[in-house]
Specification:
alpha/beta, TIM Barrel, 12 helices, 8 strands, 15% strand, disordered N terminus, oxidoreductase activity, FAD-linked_oxidoreductase-like, oxidoreductase, 5,10-methylenetetrahydrofolate reductase
Length: 305
């Protein structure tokens, strides 16, 4: 007599939509030295060619930053370290950092930003000052920070006047630079305000490609903590609303709706300024990488590389 096996198969992840898959193609992701130490091999997690940003938090020795960049590069990934202006003492220090990254890790890409500290430790207070040193001449790619929901450190009055002026300056630099440039943004949680911001940039003549910041899957409490600390604006209400629903309070947040909203708009609007996704793996890089894979982000060909 035949025996039938009624073993239940584990449910597979739903197929990703074409627009979401297209938006996730060539996504980038962020690590810090202490989080990178927990990853045995990035090749086990990330698609080939994934751009890896190495975030520089105040107090992290440059030796640790360069070692992390060297390790990630040795595993075959293009590395983009942060250069936070306000924690760099002077031009000589900046030159030393660049020489170390280039000499030891072969770095040719950089994210230039003001940095999270309020008081500069030395001569620099904004990313434009870093660009204007000329020390990044010869870099293949330079990214700059963007704030879809404003930044009260830059515009204390709640407007975006200074933020927009800074982007105009960066656009002008882009037009006279040989480096490929893009805007890498703070993470957000709501698609409509981000779409409106991207369209406004286009109206203002700012055509730098946008790599939109996306918070990876994480516990709700973790995301709210980081969102408040990083100055996330009105889209924080998405998390606050979720926190009021007891049935969702203990279920990890996933950026599915946010990414799908942006992807749907991009699919219908040729030339939409958001080019790619940049992940902040606040719930862990392994969890984030698996979510990206499950949702169609299996190809690691960098956007506009």
């Amino acid at each position: 007599m035949a025996l039938f096996n009624f073993r239940r198969e584990a449910p597979s992840a739903p197929a990703a939509s074409a627009p979401v898959e297209a938006l996730l193609k060539g996504y980038s992701i962020e690590v810090m030295p202490r989080t990178a130490e927990k990853v045995e091999n990035f090749r086990d997690l990330l698609p080939e060619g994934t751009r890896v940003y190495v975030a520089h938090i105040e107090g992290t020795p440059i030796e640790d930053m360069v070692a992390t960049a060297k390790r990630v590069a040795s595993e075959g990934f293009p590395v983009m370290p942060h250069f936070p202006a306000r924690i760099i003492k002077d031009k000589a220090t900046l030159a030393d950092w660049i020489a170390r990254y280039r000499g030891e890790a072969g770095v040719t890409q950089a994210l230039l930003l003001a940095g999270g500290v309020k008081q500069p430790v030395g001569d620099f207070h904004c990313s434009m000052q870093l660009m204007e040193t000329g020390l990044f001449d010869g870099f293949e790619r330079l990214h700059v920070a963007g704030h879809p929901e404003g930044n009260k450190d830059i515009d204390p009055d709640g407007s975006d006047r200074m933020v927009m002026e800074a982007l105009r300056c960066k656009q002008a630099f882009h037009e006279r630079s040989d480096a490929k440039m893009a805007i890498a943004t703070q993470f957000c949680f709501e698609a409509d305000p981000v779409i409106a911001w991207a369209e406004r940039l286009a109206q203002e003549g700012i055509d730098l490609p946008i790599h939109i910041g996306v918070a990876g899957p994480a516990k709700l409490q973790t995301l709210i903590k980081f969102a408040i600390a990083c100055g996330v604006g009105s889209s924080l209400r998405v998390l606050q609303k979720r926190a009021m629903d007891v049935t969702k309070l203990l279920v990890p947040y996933e950026p599915t709706d946010f990414v799908a909203g942006l992807a749907a708009h991009k699919a219908k609007n040729h030339g939409f300024g958001i080019e790619s996704v940049h992940f902040f793996p606040l719930g862990g890089i392994k969890t984030n990488a698996q979510w990206a894979k499950d949702n169609g982000g299996a190809s690691g060909v960098p956007a506009n590389s």
